[in-house]
Structure formats: C-alpha cells, structure tokens
Amino acid sequence: MSANEGTVFVALFSGINVGGNRIVKMAELKSFFEDLGFTGVATYVQSGNVVFRAKKGDAASLTSALEAAFEEKWGFNSRIMVRDAGWFERLVKDNPYPEITDEPTKLHAYVLEREPTAEEAKRLAEKCTGPERFEIKGDVLYLNAPDGLGKSVFANLIGRTLKVPGTARNWRSVLALLEMAGKAGG
C-alpha cells in the first residue's frame, strides 16, 4: 500500500494491562484494528499503543468508533486518545525540557482529552511542591519527575486535580511511537 492511502494515527489506550487487570494481549489488539479495516497496524509495549493507517475519519471520529468497538469486544471501557503523526511530531518538537531527553524515564508526556483551562492549570500548579516540574502546551502536559514517575507524589495528583482525562507515556515510548508513525507513513 502506498503512503498516500490514508492518514497515520496513533491510538493510546488507558487503563489496560495495569496491575494484572483488564488484560488485553497486543496480538489481539492488532487483530482488532485490522478487523475494523485499518492497515499498517503495529503495537508497542503492553500499555496499549497502536500505530495504524485510516483511509477516512479524523482523530475525534476514530476515537468514538474505537472506544465503542473496544467496549463491545472486551466488555469494559478504555479511554483512547487518538492523534495523528503530525501531532506527535509537534509534541516532540515542543518539549520544554530538551536537557533531560537522554533520561527518558524522568520525562513523561500526558496526552490530554482537551487543553486545560487556565484555572485548571493554576490548581495543578499549586499542588506541584516537590522536585517535579511540568508545563502544559495545548493538550499535552509535559512532566519532569527527577525521581521517576513511580516515586512521584505529584504525578498521582495530576488526574484528580486537573480533572481532564489523559494518559501518560514516558519519553522513550513517545519517541518510539513517533518513529513507528514515520515508518508507517513512508
């Protein structure tokens, strides 16, 4: 299939394969996308990342269709963030912490359902009292957690405080997905 047949997207799943719950095998997820008619399907690590090509539809319509089909197949809801390859390129280019990209476990990108309001961002900033730093650019929250995400008290507060649904990926995953999206488009 030539690269001009469709747009390359990345789907990020939240809440699957965490702590032994809601198990979805990546091979089954790949088949699920192929059965829905998508091409160039590739998965990355168990947290649920899928690169695929769609002939029609935009991120919003694909998100709705995928969430509905996923729930029908697996019997539970997973919030899915669908973004196109160009969006991922901007995410990497706009990284406010280029000095820590060589320590990818200390840099995370939260893909948010929408851009937080100024009030929501302010509320979150008030909770950021530890070693972490964050910056919000559009619908991405960049988090620098110097001690790693697992030890970050602040990271656990992000979802509850911001109240904007999202899903986090470490920088290694972000770069891998961008590379996969580039290959799928070429």
TrEMBL record:
InterPro entries in the cross-refs: DUF1697
Entry-linked SUPFAM superfamilies: SP0830-like (SSF160379)
Superkingdom per UniProt: Bacteria
The name this protein goes by in its record: DUF1697 domain-containing protein
Pfam family, one: DUF1697
Organism (species): Mesorhizobium humile
